[in-house]
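[retry 2/3] Ribosomal protein S9: previous attempt timed out, resubmitting with same input.
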Amino acid sequence: MQTINTNKPVIYFGTGRRKQSIAQVQVVPGSGKLIINGLPGESYLQFSPNYLRISCSPLNILGLSSEYDIHVKVEGGGLTGQADAIRLGLARALCTINPDNRATLKSEGLLTRDARIKERKKYGLRKARKAPQYSKR
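[retry 2/3] Ribosomal protein S9: success.
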C-alpha cells in the first residue's frame, strides 16, 4: 500500500499574456509575498504603486491578499505589459483554487485577455500607418 505525502503544498498555476509579455504565475498558500523572476515584486516593478496595484488586483478584490504567496516567471515586453500579464495569470490561477471566484473576477473584467498587439509595418510606409512626406514635385 502506498502512502501519500501530504506535507507538499498545493500549487495553483495560471498563464497570462499581454502585448509581447508572457507571465507564468504560481499561487501557493502563504503570507502574501510577491516574487517576480526571483526578485521581490516591489523592486522588480520599480516600486511603482500603479504596477503593484494592477498586478495584485485579483487578490485584493477577493480579499485574499494575505493568504497566498505569488511566484511569477515573466518575460518579454515592458513593465506595463508584464503587470497586465501577471494580473491575468493570477486571476486564472485563483479560478482554479475556487470556481466561485470566477463570477466575481469576470464581472470586474479580470479574466479578459487584452488582444491589442503592435500592428506590423507595411512596405512603402515608415511605420504601420505613417506614410513618407508627400512631395508635390
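[retry 2/3] Ribosomal protein S9: The chain is about 30% helix and 20% strand.
[retry 2/3] clearing retry counter.
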